[in-house]
Amino acid sequence: MSILNIEKLKTIKQSSIVTKYFQQSWLLTLHISCTIIILLCNSCSSWIIVNDLNEQIEGLVYDRISKFLTGQLILFNIIELTFSIIELFLWINLLKKHFKLWIIIDCITIINIYLAEIPLSLLNAYICACHDSIVSIGFIIKGSFIIMFICLRLSICFISCNYEKTNEFTKNSFNINLNEEQHLLHNNENYFNENYLCKSIYWPWIRIGLCTGLFCLIILICTIFSFLLISLNSSNLQWYQLNINQSNVKMIFQHDYLHDVEIFLEDNTNQSQIKWYHLLSLQQIIQLKQINANESVLLTFHYDYNKKQKLIKFKQIIHYSNNTKIHWSTCWQIIKYDLYKEITCPLLRNQSIRLIYGMKITFIYIEPSKKQHYGNVLYNITRVSTGSRKIREHDLKLKYFQNTIVHLSSKKSTELQSNHGHDEWSSGPFRSYNLQVDDELYTKYRSTDLGNMPLHFAAMSGSSECVKICISALKARLDLDCGTEVRRRNFMGKDALTISIEKGDYESFSLLLSAGAETDYRCTDDVPPLVAALSQDNVELTANVLDTLEINFLRLRRDHYWILTLHTDLSISLIYLKLLKAHAVPYILSEFEEICATVLEKEPSTKGIEEFLIYLGSDAVERWSIHLEQVHLCLMRISSYFLRKIVPFSQNFTCIHRLQKSGLYIPPSSARTWLRVLSQWGFPKIYVEQPDIQKQLIWNLADINRNPRTTVPDRCLLPLVLYFSVLALRFPHSDWINCWHEVCSKANFSEHEYNLGTLLELHSIRQSKSVFDFFWHNIFTFAISRAVLYADLMLLSLNDIQRSMDKLLNHAYHECPLLQPQVTEKNHEKLIYLLSYFPASNNIPGHKIFIFIVYRHFLPLISDDDIESSNINSNVLMTATVHVLHQYALLNLIVNFSAKLGLKFLSNLQDWPRSVSADDKIKLFHILIACYIESSQDIKVPRNISQMLSLNEMSNDRCNHLNNSAHNWLSKWLSEPKSLLLWSKITIRTCIRRSAQHRSLPKQPVNELIRHLPLAPMIQEYLIDNEYSK
């Protein structure tokens, strides 16, 4: 036999191993069985996920799964189940060795992958990424079975590929060695089916589609698993420390969210050993939030000098929204490290017991929302002290663990415990595994301590059937009076009727009323049912409470029922106001002022805010008088709020017209107030962007089509108000002046009447300041703020904005010459005052637009002769100094024009900002020396530091420290020899300072004059640098 035939026989032998899979029935049966099991389990896991999502309880992550998303999941699950059943029947028929069904199975698999599996995987990935509170075991099960299915399909695909390659060769080999009769015997039906499978022209494309779909599934499953790991390990709960005194929130750390969370406090006062105290559960904080209550924990450490023992008092305090509170406390004796014994609390006022240290921690939970999907826990730490003695500070660290508390009993928590959130911890505030506990003392956290009876529990459940059963049981008891038991209150002063109102259960409310619940509150000082009703959003229930209860409001010690009407939805608050007014609840002026101030702090997007404020003002005018000072002031604030907030938010004047129709509109009376109001239309946020809406708002403000013009009733003030509105809406667009002229012409004003100089001079007396101060302090600061906002948002190019600023100032100079800096005046003082108009934290003085304005309109007119004789307010100079020293580009620009003005800022050491770094201080010292030398007409370096600085005038500690650092650095610099290059720079720059081009007004800056010198560019750059480095 030839070598070629031998090789062919070896190949036949190898191919028989590959095709053994198809020849052996038990291997084919095993493969089909595994495939069927995986398909069934995969479909079942999909429905497990749908069921888990349907039963999901709203948790820390915002909102439930939407119905649309659930519907999509069900739809794709039905598609997946349909194709899986079809594939199941095809696999069963494949057992009969109908191999040509294989290509149909692959087609069905591809359709199933693209129409069901991939969309389902995308939806599951979205759920795992965006709904972290939903962690279903079905995700892991489904992903695992899909991976198994992929492996199985890829393996059989590999086998089929090898079978296809070897099938033709096997057929040819048989043709060589077998006669025609044997060949015909092999040409049976199975062999035909196999050949049909291999010869199909669609087979490569089907294989490519199958592999592509399987690859996409692998990517999506890996994505789902990664999201599952993130949801288990990443933070879904954000912790913040709240500092009430400083009014800021500091993010401390971010940990995992586990539903069963217990919060611990680390005590590291003993540096050699660290231990943890158990405070409370996060679940309890969340449950208290639902009833508008907060919890605080008081932990104090005492020492008993008589018994020579250390004591710890642990106290939990719950503060309710009605200014009531309840508390639990327990005392523990420290036997040794991490070993405690609960004891009866001694009298801590005993002189032998002294407080070592203590702390009070208040916890507040902020619910998630659409903008913030994670719940926030705020906690505020208050140190406990006695008398004037300050308690030793120690670090505070919070931590929480899952399932670390061992409960006293193994019984399930009662309904009350789940409602109230107390765990009946066996460990109190400490660890649970090494405590000496007196069993008879373990009643501090039990539900019976709250004084709740079965009827209270039934009302807490929110089930009217439970309440009905309890009432029937009470009526059946001959030894109890049903009415008395229904009116019985718990230790928090709540009866079952109040609890049912808190739950919003109208049916239970009706049942309790019919059973004899308390309705007569004419002789009491408080009405808990009314407080509970006003705290809810159930209007029908609140109306029935007011109709049912008999209340003598004149006797009540509580006077803030009106404040309780304020809700997130102000349309509900409006109904409550009308209900209280209908029932003649006393209403005093201070309550009106408080409600008005509270509502005016809300955003204009708050539902029902416009109607609420109109009714609030109308009711106040009806009760008292519009001429009453407090009412008039509140109506002014309401009118201002409508103009500032609601008009730009709604982008129309409908709210103002409604206010005018009600007779409540009181417009601002001065130009400065109008500017403050209208400036909020365009800063710090651009509310109106469409030019046609902007134009319509300006026309409505001018009452173009209305008569009389009541929006701005003062005709002399109207053109200036329109000027402000155009600045707020159209500036810095190039057509803003044309827009102002157009609207003034439409309002029938002559050119003289809307001349800016005339308007500013007319209202300068009302402003109690000069025309120059009003323009630069108020109008210019707003205009440049708008310009910087447009530049930062890149809405216009920097060159266009600078041209608009030039146009604004040139227009103002043309119509009001008093605004323009004059050569004969002390323009450096105007620049210093202009810098002081911006707060110290404002970055506008360092912006390119501001530097452009200063360069064009102020610095060229500054005379060095006026600087020495100037007398500027110390606070004004301090703010200006902070801006100049923070903005290095501005400082260099000022020094280029006037070394004396730069020296005035730099020598003012007591006002140097704290945030100046060490490197920046060295740069400032270099410029300080340059300013002194170049401003003093002598080409020599000073030997005495006091010539440059008044160091002895600074007395506080910080100034003394800066004094010493400046003294040391300057002394070292002055004592060291100077290079010839530096002396040349000093000489050249000083001569240029003396030149007529630099000293005559308008002056040219030093850097521009140096660039005109016939020197090499490298030398020019060295001379331009304002720093005198050696």
From TrEMBL:
Residue ranges crossing the lipid bilayer per the database entry: 26-49, 69-94, 101-127, 133-156, 208-232
Q: Does the keyword Hydrolase apply?
A: no
* Alphabetically ordered keywords of this record: Membrane, Transmembrane, Transmembrane helix
Which Pfam family name is an example for this entry? Ank_2
Q: Does the keyword Signal apply?
A: no
- Origin superkingdom: Eukaryota
Q: What is this protein called?
A: Uncharacterized protein
